[in-house]
Amino acid sequence: xxxxxxxxxxxAALACAAFGAVCGFVGGRRRSMDAWRLARGATYASxxxxxxxxxxxxxxxxxxxxxVWYVSRVGSLETPxxxxxxxxxxxxxxxxxxxxxxxxxxAAALAFVYRRRHADYMPYTLGVLxxxxxxxxxxxxxxxxxxxxxxxxxxxxxxxxxxxxxxxLMALHPPMLYAGYVGMAVPFAIASGALLRGRIGTAxxxxxxxxxxxxxxxxxxxxxAGGWWSYEVLGWGGYWAWDxxxxxxxxxxxxxxxxxxSLMVQERRGILKTWSLSLLMVTFLLTILGTFMTRSGxxxxxxxxxxxxxxxxxxxxxxxxxxxxxxLLATRxxxxxxxxxxxxxxxxxGAFLLNNVVFLAFTLxxxxxxxxxxxxxxxxxxxxxxxxxxxxxxGVPLGLAVLSLxxxxxxxxxxxxxxxxxxxxxxxxxxFGIAVxxxxxxxxxxxxxxxxxxxLAGFVTFVTLREFWVPTRSRMSSSxxxxxxxxxxxxxxxxxxxxxxxxxxxxxxMIVAITASWNYKLKVEATLDRGGSFRIGDYDVTFRxxxxxxxxxxxxxxxxxxxxxxxxxVAVLQPRSNxxxxxxxxxxxxxGTPAVHSTAAGDVYLTLLAFEKDGSQATIxxxxxxxxxxxxxxxxxxxxxxxxxxxxxxxxRGRARGGVDGEAHAPRAEPAxxxxxxxxxxxxxxx
Amino acid sequence: MxxxxxxxxxxxxxxxIARGSMGDNLVYYWSPADLEAQGERAFGTPVxxxxxxxxxxxxxxxxxxxxxxxxxxxxxxxxxHSKGTPPQMFSEAQGxxxxxxxxxxxxxxxxxxxxxxxxxxxxPAPGEEPQQVYRSLVQEDGP
Amino acid sequence: MKWGYVxxxxxxxxxxxxxxxxGFGKDPSAIVSPLPGHEAPDFTLSDLDGKAVRLSELRGAPxxxxxxxxxxxxxxQEHEVLARGAAHHAADGVQFLGVVYQDEPESIRxxxxxxxxxxxxxxxxKGQTAIDYGVTGVPETFFVRPDGVIDSKKVGPLDPxxxxxxxxxxxxxxxxx
Lengths: 687, 143, 177
Description:
- The complex is a heterotrimer of chains A (687), B (143) and C (177).
- Chain B has 143 residues and is α+β, with helices and mostly antiparallel strands.
- In chain B, 29% of the residues lie in helices and 32% in strands.
- In chain B, α2 links the parallel β1 and β2.
- Chain C has a seven-stranded mixed sheet.
- In chain C, β4 (95-101), α3 (105-114) and β5 form a beta-alpha-beta unit.
- β1 of chain A pairs antiparallel with β1 of chain B, so a sheet runs across the interface.
């Protein structure tokens, strides 16, 4: 029964989404509250139907209903329940089902949150969002139908791709990534709605920023979790390989980051409007391009688990979206004319613009490297791939530019500024950065690039912490409150700015950790007899034994090694190699799981490369990975920062320290809100 | 308009720089026959070489961690050298992909060795069935 | 109204979309084979009952040669696609041939008893045919035109669309025996 229920639910969701989209556009055009109400109702109904569909699929997976096509592809009786549930996103059709469901979650959330506010353009926004949703639901109903009946019904299935059932992080990485990807449709829809509506002042910028930050945060978590998964599963000791699929997730992240920054300038100064909108549209297009890259089979990638026929459909969708964006910019250009001119380059605005150019350049470089193999084959007829050195060579200077700007930007005042003031602002941070670099030399860091990175990191950290410290200190002296209380007060009065600074600190920590782990990695490979050992960094690794472990869905060969530091045992590590059961047979090629002993200074990372069949010997690769855990931790800091920035502000407040505060005080030209909306809109404007 | 031109110039410059640094970092997908056809021009070019491991050509020297083998596509043959332990299931008559460069001596120096498509595509050698590996370990560790 | 945006999007976007479209239907991980465009190496192999089949005697009809084995999991998944494709194209005169690679007759019989096919299953006892065709693993499938020239080669399991796409040029060059 699961098949018909699921398919029925998907068709119902499709009907609701299509109907809601029409209602949204009609409601926006005729300013009809009835149509707006209907559009919201249809959104909720579509969300309910998609929820039913996805729950049906989970039930089909858990009950091993192999009459459902998707279950027959990724299910197996031997897979444990946890991995059975997450196999929902282990293959194309399930991923698109999850994708479609997340989109309806966003649509329903948007419809609910703005049920009484922003009613002038929200119907259009919902119309655009539901149109995108209808497209995805149509994919699920037709070309990528996971509920298709299978006859004759198989008695068992192959189970999910072994790589995807090898680590619990698989439960986190794809949903986060999808929530980020899909969510970029929401700011796109908000901007589309506002432009379609026309003449609405700046009221739409606040929802735009919030709904851009939400998917940005998910995308950040998704990307880092992907790196972590690759580090914990693939066993090559790295976390990022510039693989097309990784790039596909990184590209919208880069452009979205640029957008979030340019939006701040737009809110505050009323300039860079077309630019911001273009960045937003580019971000949305890149998420569709990313889906295409992951799912079309056109790109050569370790992640291309599915070659599918939906590539052309996505390509067509990408084309439609592209011309939608261009048409919107073309017909509404008068709405997004600049309110003023850009001040000189030595200003906060100038730094923001430079940041945008650097991020855009980064996007372009990565995009170029990713699609170049296609270009070479189409034009020169040769088959090539772009080597890692290209990305590293291009990425390092761009990364350093981003790092420098994080330091210079906050130190520059808005508007025009004089050279003496800039010098004063940058003097101490600059000296501190140089001191950090000197300190690194004392610790034996001599290569120029890491030195430059660590020095810049010191510079940025100084600038950022000073932004916290100076107002906190003045608050302490003016109110007599304690340091923590004052800090809380300062942060809570300009959450967006301080949230942004916390994110910056996270980025600095991540760049430092990445630099250290690339430049100071140690590697040992040794074939050990029982009791034999090797030394890596400060650690001694001793081979104890190698044993088999059998589970229902796999069996594993597990090596046990004692890790000691200065003679003190610190950990017992068990790198393993797993053979998964597919169609009743054990897979012959093992999938390794490295074992990691994690400390704040770095990870000891062991992989089982080979073993003697009598268990007497094992070949172990040992890696010392300095500072790698900081990469995951700094992602936590970035998430914390965006939570601070997103947290709804309850209290009204005046302008504290007007000149340097990063909050929006752009001139507002609100039209008279529709009846019944006045109070809400006023409250909104006052925030 | 000035902004658009400035932007175009900036992005053009980036594309130009990118194109320049891509030049040396392109990895060509070649078969042994392609590699042979390139002759001396192939020296030093990063290549992803795909083919089959010639039966009887594997020479593994555990003491120095040197691995030599020959990759063939039926016609042309290329001698490959790789450093480090071969993958657990590396063996003869198997599809393989190696990344690296060919030196003037005609030996392909591999920096990355991948067993093609995994062993789903290869017949199990005697004693290599996973269950048998497993059993032999059980016997060793058995009570 | 600024049409510049639309013109810009068309100027930059359309070539990009065309570039992406150029990648369809190519397997980026495939290794280029020198065989397509050349005559298919001839072979004479026996099926499980000892009945011999010679490739050159099939000249005049399109031939699909599928290298597979029972121990190969993707081959099992592909098996049904081929069985249906063979049944569907029997009227077009397309001759399918299964060539089993490094396998035991008993396991082949067992497997075919469960999932039968209507075309000959030949046993490549010494693996000589696989070497002639440069087979690096299974499944690999060769599409031979009626004039005996290999039209294309597929590495990895076929899906129904792929099978149809590759059969197209074979049928266009005058199928039907």
